[in-house]
Amino acid sequence: MRCSVLDLGSNSFHVLVADVDDTGLVPVEREREMLHLGRVVAQHGRIPEDQVARAAATVAHLSALARRSGSQDHVAVATSALRDADDGATVLARLSEAAGTQVRVLSGAHEARLGYLGVRASVALQDEPVLVLDLGGGSLELTVGTGAEVAWSTSLPLGVSRLSALVERDPPHRREVAALTARVASELDPHLCDVAAAGARTTVAVGGTVRALARVVAAEEGRWLPATLNQLSIDTDELVGVRDELLGLDLTGRLAVPGMKERRADHLHLAAVVLAEVLDRVGVGSVTVSDWGLREGILLDAHGVTVPPGADELRRREVARLRRAFGPDHASSDQVATLAMAVFDGLRPVHGLGPSDRELVAHAARLHDIGESLALRRHHVHGAYLIANAELRGFAPHETAMLATLVRSAPSRGIDASYPPFEALSEVDQDRTRRLLPVLQLATRFARTRDGAVRDARVAVEEDHVTVAPVGHDVPAAPVDLERVARLFRSTYGLPLRVAPVVVGGA
């Protein structure tokens, strides 16, 4: 079902249109307008008429966009700024009329729960307590939960637009920064014992401001990023370094910072102060960024999708989504994945890799030929591009880089070290990718004709060589092609590879 949510936030108004079923949602349209009502309410206690008129016009535009995009169910919610404004009820009536539906005001606790649900649908997390920080324009929500269950949450008036009213200078004076930091401490400290008692093992941060900060941190570090920052991990020390840099710059200077989003430049230095102080006081050394949050959580909750998938299931669903969009032959892709896992298992004494690598090469096998949906020639290049830009949930940027590199290199003589996603990987992850490539190449060669002729592979590791025997009816790969794989295998593992004659029928 195609539906939409209009999120009237304290920084911005957003609309999200998505197709939702019992397994999750797929976004089909997004748009936002920056209004900064949180700052207006912090300064005046109410929303002046000119700002109300602008807000109503924005709501009408975004609601019309949702309906013209095919939305059959349009939901509208408001958060901190409209929750706290003295004239909130009057303004909400105007906005409801503009939206063509009643705008529902979310309590802080409800906002926290829905944001948590959106995060759990986007980030691959283990079955253990996780702390979610949702930094918006009017408030900061903190939520701790495991799986679908929220154990504790609170909402604090620490939104960036709201706190910007404390700062008049640009760049801010050190006294203003000290006042901002003190405000964070006074609001947060009474809850630190509750956070500690919840025992979160992982911290995830969400919100447009958080993503904008993470993009600047990544640019400072020279990291390659796919189309989404989802599951990007940043260290608190890296964030502190960016905070200190931004605090020394005025708006013009901040706009010149690599990775800076123009629409966030006016407040991003203040957001860095808030987030760094929160992480420091909570005692968190790193934080994972989520691309999904409140809006996605609202749609999932409205359609009863409240049990988040496990980490493995989330990744499987996302790979299947991409496969459906660009490569409908599921039987063939599953065959290649089966062969890749069989080869991987047999080569354990040689490659020394673990379960996460096995899962990754199986996903690469399922996606290795999706680029053929664009063109047969250079399909491996097209496939790598699709992976890098498909906003795959459940994969960290370095895992997406590994997937794209494997798919791009599947038909080649080896990995191009200058390929940006591979070049940006750590030495450890580069080595992992190199070790996985021969596994993928053997699987794709054995399944070349996609007719199921080879359904398994047996591996024998000897002291001075490795033998791989395909099991099935025939080996469709050309001898010259297998020789190329053998050369890559030897250069990777230092051992000769022999492809034995096919074991007919598995006997």
Q: Summarize the biggest pleated sheet.
A: 6 strands, mixed
What is the 3D shape?
Answer: elongated
Structural class, judged by helices and strands?
A: alpha/beta
Query: How do the strands of the widest beta sheet line up side by side?
Result: 8-7-6-9-11-10
Oligomerization category of the chains in this entry: single chain
Mean pLDDT: 92
Number of continuous helical runs: 22
Which ranges are low-confidence, i.e. pLDDT below 50, for 5 or more consecutive residues? none
Q: Quote the distance from N terminus to C terminus.
A: 49 Å
Number of strands: 15
Rg result: 26 Å
The percentage helix is 40-55%
Strand content: 15-25%
Question: Summed up, what is this model?
Answer:
This protein is α/β, with parallel strands linked by helices.
Report on this model:
This protein is of the alpha/beta class and 507 residues long. Helices cover 50% and strands 18% of the residues. The chain has helices at 37-44, 49-68, 80-84, 88-99, 108-120, 160-163, 174-188, 192-198, 208-221, 236-247, 251-255, 268-282, 294-302, 311-326, 330-346, 348-351, 355-367, 379-389, 397-409, 420-423, 427-446, 479-493, and strands at residues 2-8, 12-21, 24-34, 73-78, 103-105, 130-135, 140-146, 149-156, 202-206, 233-235, 286-290, 454-461, 466-472, 497-499, 503-504. The strands form three sheets. It has a six-stranded mixed β-sheet with strand order 8-7-6-9-11-10, sandwiched between helices. The protein has a five-stranded mixed β-sheet with strand order 3-2-1-4-5, sandwiched between helices. Strands 12, 13, 14 and 15 form a four-stranded mixed β-sheet that branches. Helix 15 (330-346) packs antiparallel against helix 17 (355-367).
